[in-house]
Every structure is written in C-alpha cells, then in structure tokens.
Amino acid sequence: MPSYRLPMYHRQSPAVRCLNFLCAVLLTMVLITGIIMFVLWLSLRPHKPRFYLNDFSIPNLNRQSGAVNLPVRFTVDERNPNQKIGIHYEAIYGSVYYGDLLVASGPVHQPFYQPPKGDTQLLGDLTASGPTSGDGSAWQRFAGDAAAGNVGLRLMLNSTVRFQVKVWDTKEHNMKVDCEFSLRGDGTLQQQDKNKQCLLYF
Ligand SMILES: *[C@@H]1O[C@H](CO)[C@@H](O)[C@H](O)[C@H]1NC(C)=O
C-alpha cells in the first residue's frame, strides 16, 4: 500500500516570504480603514427626527349639524436629535382622519431647515370638511362618539426630508408622521394623549 508523509518543514523562498509580508500589511491596512469607516459611520449616521402631539382641538365638536367648517387646530413638536446633522424639510402637509374618512387636510408648514439639536412647533390650522349629517353612518358614529366623550382620530403629516451632514446633502426621503389620539366630547385632547410620541415612516 503506498503511503506518503507531508513534509515536516517546508522551506519558503524569499519571494514567498515577501509576498506573505505584503499580504499581512495589506490586510492590516484594510482592517484599520474598516474600523475608521465604522467609527465615522457611527458618529455621522443620521437619526430620524421625533414628533410629539402637543395639543389638538376641534372646538364645538359636539354640535348637532356636522363638523363641516369647524376649525381644526393642533400643535406638533418636531425635534432633531442629531448632534451634527441638520434636516431640510420640504413643505409639510397634514391630514386628519376619523377611521378612513378625511376630516380635514391642508398645508401645515413652509419648507424649513432644522439645525442640529433644534426643535420646532408645527402649528396646524385647518378647516373640517366632514363628517356631515349627509355622511350617514359615519356621521352617526362620530356624533355617538362625541356624545360618549371619546372621538378617536388620526393626524398624518407628510413631507420630504434631506439630512445635511456638514457640507454634503444625503438623498431625499419621503416621510410620514402618524399620530393617533382621542378627543373629549367638547373637542379637546384627552389628557393621556398629550405629548404622545407619533410614529414615523420613512
Ligand atoms: C403629502 O400628501 C398630500 C396629500 O396626499 C400630497 O398632495 C402631497 O404631495 C404630499 N407631499 C409630499 C411631500 O409627499
């Protein structure tokens, strides 16, 4: 039966040893570059802004003839949590829903730049387009909820944002903010929903 052994000691030529050395240097450089990139990415990576529903009201919500033309007012706190990164907002647009019925919508804020660590109060002043007594069952549910003192609504804000890292801008993101809350029968915000954080979709 043929048998063979691996050589115990393989003598490397100077060329092979030189190649090994170059490989080691190259790998070390790649590793160090990787670590530097990772640290840079950690410190420059943008964090998403945060939104809190500060206040919301529809005065005279409980009147009998429908919500049409009632003022819809709200305050949403926007905060940029980044130390070094500013945020450019395009125009912010707001929509208020009762279930899937649009209650009010319109522009909320002009385009603006939010510097690092900055915050802005977004003041919404819209006019209700519904529900009306003509909306049938939706209006009946709405009036019933108002009489019971608990009207569940949803405020959606949408915009386009861009992060600005010192000198370069990153790509545009479509942004959607989703605040769920309830109003009392008189159209003011339920206490437990004050300053509730809204969901953010990028
Ligand atoms: C926000 O939503 C409104 C209504 O759906 C739409 O007209 C507007 O173009 C949207 N804005 C952005 C920036 O997506």
Characterization of the model:
It is a single-pass membrane protein. It comes from Leersia perrieri. The protein is α+β, with helices and mostly antiparallel strands and about 200 residues long. The chain is about 20% helix and about 45% strand. Strand 4 (about 90-100) and strand 5 (about 100-110) form a beta hairpin. The longest helix has about 30 residues, at about 15-45. It is elongated, with a radius of gyration of 29 Å. The site of 2-acetamido-2-deoxy-beta-D-glucopyranose (NAG) has 6 residues, from strand 8.
N-to-C SSE series? Answer: HEEEEEEEHEEEE
**Global geometry:** elongated
Helical residue percent band: 10-25%
What is the tally of beta strands? 11
The molecules bound to the chains, other than polymers, are: 2-acetamido-2-deoxy-beta-D-glucopyranose
| Domain module count | 2
Question: In terms of structural class, how would the helical and strand content be classed?
Answer: alpha+beta
Strand content: 35-45%
Please name the CATH architecture of the largest domain.
Sandwich
Low-confidence stretches: none
CATH topology of the largest domain: Immunoglobulin-like
| Gyration radius, rounded | 29 Å
Biggest sheet record: 7 strands, antiparallel
Q: Number of helix segments?
A: 2
Average pLDDT number: 90
Please identify the top-level CATH class of the largest domain. Mainly Beta
Q: Determine the N-to-C terminus distance.
A: 70 Å
Indicate the topology:
Elements: H1 14-44, E1 50-57, E2 71-79, E3 85-89, E4 92-98, E5 101-109, E6 112-114, E7 119-127, H2 137-148, E8 151-165, E9 168-183, E10 196-197, E11 199-201
Antiparallel strand pairs: 1-2, 1-10, 2-7, 3-6, 3-8, 4-5, 4-8, 8-9, 9-11
The structure holds 2-acetamido-2-deoxy-beta-D-glucopyranose.
